[in-house]
Amino acid sequence: MKTLSLLLIGLFITYWAPAVAQSNSATARKQQFNLENGLALQGYDAVAYFTQNKAVKGSATNSFTYKNVTYRFATPANLKAFQEAPDRYEPQYGGWCAYAMGATGEKVEIDPETFKVKDGKLYLFYHSFINNTLPKWNKDEVNLHKKADMNWGKFIQS
Prior knowledge:
Layout: H1 2-32, E1 35-36, E2 39-40, H2 46-51, E3 59-66, E4 69-73, H3 76-84, H4 86-89, H5 98-103, E5 111-118, E6 121-125, H6 133-139, H7 141-157
Antiparallel strand pairs: 1-2, 3-4, 5-6
């Protein structure tokens, strides 16, 4: 009986525990990401930021959910590129304003058309009629980037 119990515990740890942990991780991730109507990047194409250096609206017909976060793409080719390497295209800081994450550690909405791709990473920024945080980020990027990384780490570990 003791052997059977140990065998069942071993099976649980081997097969079900990783699935439960992954499910909890995906749920927590979805809660931390900047999602509007359930979509990352407000429905803009994550791949187009890198390949076209512009913000392009995605299409519902080219949607893909990665770890509980749904993305849309302008073309089937961009969808395929994302499916092959999603971590390469996901926005930094869950799609929240990079400047705010660095300056105050807060999750602040973004304008998906105000962005920067640097060193293979996508950074998004708040931009309204009177306030554009991208130039502020550019003035102190090294310092703000370090702080943003540290602040975002607090969100994804909680």
